[in-house]
Each structure stands twice: as structure tokens, then as C-alpha cells.
Amino acid sequence: MEQFATTVADLAQKLAAILAEKLGFKSNFFQENCLSSTCYLRMNRYPPCPIPSDVFGLMPHTDSDFLTILYQDEVGGLQLVKDGKWFAVKPNPEALIVNIGDLFQAWSNDVYKSVQHRVVTNPRVERFSTAYFFCPSYDTEIQSCYEPSVYKKFSFRMYRQQVQDDVKKLGRKVGLPSDDQIDDVERLMEIIKQAAKEGAMVVYTLADPSMAESAKLACKLLGIPATGVIGPITEAIASHLDVLPSGLPRGAPGRNFPL
User: Fold this and answer.
1) What is the pTM of this model?
2) Angle CA(167)–CA(104)–CA(11) in degrees, nearest 5?
3) 227: which strand partners?
4) What is the pLDDT of residues 126-153, one digit of tens each?
């Protein structure tokens, strides 16, 4: 196993260098940031499942790294999505599977795409696989190599934490942070100020009440016409169901304020 880890670690460095060179970059980024202490090897066992149509061995997801190098046994079960359809990856004992991860997608500015994949279970036999994850240190900053950047700069630590938070809150991984997502008041104010300069109207869909209120007040102070989309929709649905926006019936204990 140690020899396998050493071999695929060297392979990952070579592949990353080739992929970067194809983008026109000869960089020491991967040698300097993806070290043996930051990458890791994981062995997976998928036991037989009597209801394979109802249970995944691994839910659909993308990998939160630069590259994943995978060896799977002869049982199979790995599937990749392409053009909205799932395709089985036929096991080949003489081959390794290489997946682009989220970090390479962000670093390449969407030239390389992180592949969504899953593992389906087998009703009769167990499955084994070994995966090598080519990762940087947590403090490494990921920034697109092209401008204009599709993604805002982020650290690997921030991304891993965001993935964990999303899974806890939503039950799934959301994915890469994009420049068109507004996640802080400072960026929100920049957009509103730009709208004021251009004499534009602001239409916002902010689920966070504090962010929505900040947008409303800023637009009022700057004299910009603005409207929130989510608020009226939520109020209309709540009114139709005769509940408060929280979902509680009107007049419920502790809910004596108007909608």
C-alpha cells in the first residue's frame, strides 16, 4: 500500500503539471502546495446491499480536491454523469481512474470541470476501491489562473468548512463559491453603489432577513428604486396558508405580531 501511495503521488504531480501546461502555465504551485503531508489515501469498502435500487454506496458528489486517482476492483459500481445521464465506469484491472476535482475547476477558471460521480451498491458481493486525493494545505489560497475570474479567491480551509456546513444544513454539498453569489454586506454595498452610479434599479433575492433589510435601507438612502423578490412571495404564500412566514399558525403562542 505504501508503494501504491508513492506511485500515485508522483503520478498526480505529473498530471497536474501537464494539465497546467496545457493552460499555458509552467508553475511550481502544485509541488509547493500539494505535499505528501496534505494529500491522503483512502480505502473504501462497500458491503452487499439487498436493496441496491434504494441505497447508494456513495451519494452523487464532486471531489473537493485538485485530482483524485482511483483504483476499483472488478465488481464495479462507479458511475459518472455526462449530459445529464449516468454512465457506468467499467472496471479495468490495468487502469486507474483520474477525476478532476473542485479545486482544479476553480484554478483553471472552468476550463477543466469537476466530475460528478456516485457509487451504486451490489446486491450480492462487496466492492473495494482505493482513492488518492491530491490536496493542498488548508491555508493554500485557490485563485483562478485567468481573468476575469469565474470564482472569487478562497482558501482550502474555507472551502472544506463551507462544504461541511452545507452538508449539515442542507444534507448535500453545494459546491464552488462563485463571484455572482453575494455572501457579505460589503459586497452588497458595492453592488448597490454601482447601481446608483448607473441609475439602475436593484432587484434582490436575499433570503437572509438582515441582508435584505440592509439592501432596502441602502437603496432608500441612495435614492435607488429597489424591490425584494423573496419577501412578497413568502408573505403571499403565508397569507394563503393562514400562517406566519415561520410556518406557525397565526395567533400561536409567542407570535402575537402581525405578518
Assistant:
1) 0.69
2) 110
3) 203
4) 999 999 999 999 999 999 888 888 888 8
Which cell goes with 3?
508503494
Q: Give residue 227's domain range.
A: 185-241
Instruction: Respond yes or no: is residue 127 known to be catalytic.
Output: yes
Query: Catalytic one among 124, 127, 157, 172?
Result: 127
Q: At which of 110, 140, 170 does a domain end? A: 170
In a shared domain, residues 126 and 196: no
C-alpha distance from residue 59 to each of 128, 173, 222 (Å):
16, 10, 47
148 in the same domain as 39: yes
Percent of the chain exceeding pLDDT 90 equals 53
Calculate the dihedral angle through the C-alpha atoms of 155, 62, 150, 22, rounding to the nearest 10 degrees: 100
CATH of the domain at 59: 2.60.120.330
Total domain count, the chain: 2
Q: Is the distance from CB of 18 to CB of 12 less than 8 angstroms?
A: no
Q: Which ranges of 154-229 would DSSP assign to H, the alpha helix?
A: 156-170, 185-198, 209-222
* Contact indicator for 152, 178 with CB cutoff of 8 Å: yes
For residue 165, tell me if it sits in a domain. yes
Residue among 68, 74, 65 at smallest CA distance from 8: 68
Q: Do 236 and 110 reside in the same domain of the chain?
A: no
